[in-house]
Amino acid sequence: MNHEFSIDGLFDFLNAGVSAFHSTTAAAAILEENGYQNCPESAAWQLAPGGKYYTTRNGSAIMAWRMPKGPLTGWHAAASHSDSPTWRVKKLDCAEDKVFAKAETEGYGGMIMPSWLDRPLSVAGRVLVETESGIESRLVHPDRAVACIPNLCIHFNRDLNNGMKYNPQVDLQPIFGAAGGSLRAVLAREAGVKPEEIVDADIVLCTREKAERLGLNGEYFMSGRIDDLECAYTTLWGFLQGRGEEEGRGDVWVMFDNEEVGSSSRQGACGTLFADVLSRVEESLGVTKEQSIRARTNTLLLSADNGHATHPNHPEKSDPANPIVMGGGVLLKTNASQKYTTSGFTGAAFSAICKKAGVPVQTCANRADVPGGSTLGNLLGHQILMPMVDIGLGQLAMHSAMETASCADAEYMAKAVAAYYNTPIFQPKDGEWKLGL
């Protein structure tokens, strides 16, 4: 990957990531361009010192790693997620309607529902196709508008602008054209098969707008799926800048699925992907249990997921002591209830790395009377006991169909993560870091 971070590269990744399957495919392509070898989980792995590898799970989560060149002493690791709130198509065969072609959907994740109304939509995901040798997965994404979710006109709902309680089963079902149309047939053409050869599918709605700069000086950008593909791409970019100067340190980058619905799937942070890969790597190195524990202690894992910038129209929603400014740098996310993994210990280490790299850091904490959300770090901690820190970037309109963020912040994150992957980290005793700054 280019050693100079480019916002256009981020835009390409955002535009490609129309579903978790497409995000994973886009990340795999970047890794392969940089010499990483695919290791299917079902295959036997032949891992070489200093080798570069990746594996996928469910086609929607991906983990890449660089093998240490000498006896294992520790890890660098960064984690993000591939999924975003959207609408999942329940089945391809359109519901019965005398006027419109319809296919019922259900909400995935905690979205801002009205942001999906009255905009051109496409669909994306995978279809499972019957072949002579079994079932094959094929990505699909018609590059055109195939659906919309029409609003009820103001004349039929005079109180609409006074607030609307949306019922997703009634108010937010899409139309796919006139009666007689077939979503199955459209996706079959995309997949190059006959409609009857599609056995099943994992399909979601996606926005048609491309990522683009915003602002009088182009300082911001708008896109769908900024949460969390911005962190996924910038941490991947930083990972690929790692020089591997520590003989005994391995480097890891992982993008999980299903964070927006609790991470409790096989391909989510609560699954065993991270633990399984590390176990196989350690076994290939002949690592003992004691060596494994020591190496996992000499680690600082970055859990990267975006946070909320202080809203220009509603600053009262944010902690007045910790305003988050777009363009103000990387967020260090804290929560007293441990919904974020940052402690004074891990936060100090990451802040020191950022300071050395010239990257500003902002403390991110909710108002004391506003309960915060969580992310994948504390859930990943159920599987992997490594010191962790939760980081992110400030954005507006999180979980809207279209979100807004800062171009400068994306570059800050990429620069910070690159510095992290090139900083020796060692914990000589509990509560102390030795950082090769």
TrEMBL record:
An annotated Gene Ontology molecular function: aminopeptidase activity
Top-level taxon in the UniProt lineage: Bacteria
Keyword DNA repair: no
Alphabetized SUPFAM superfamilies for the sequence: Aminopeptidase/glucanase lid domain, Zn-dependent exopeptidases
Region ranges (Disordered): 304-323
EC code(s) of this entry: 3.4.11.-
GO cellular component: cytoplasm
Cited InterPro entries: Peptidase_M18 (IPR001948), Peptidase_M18_dom2 (IPR023358)
UniProt keyword annotation of Protease present: yes
Requisite cofactors: Zn(2+)
GO biological process: proteolysis
Keywords: Aminopeptidase, Hydrolase, Metal-binding, Metalloprotease, Protease, Zinc
Family the UniProt entry places it in: Belongs to the peptidase M18 family.
Protein name stated in the entry: M18 family aminopeptidase
Source organism (scientific name): Faecalibacterium prausnitzii
Upper classification of the organism: Bacteria, Bacillati, Bacillota, Clostridia, Eubacteriales
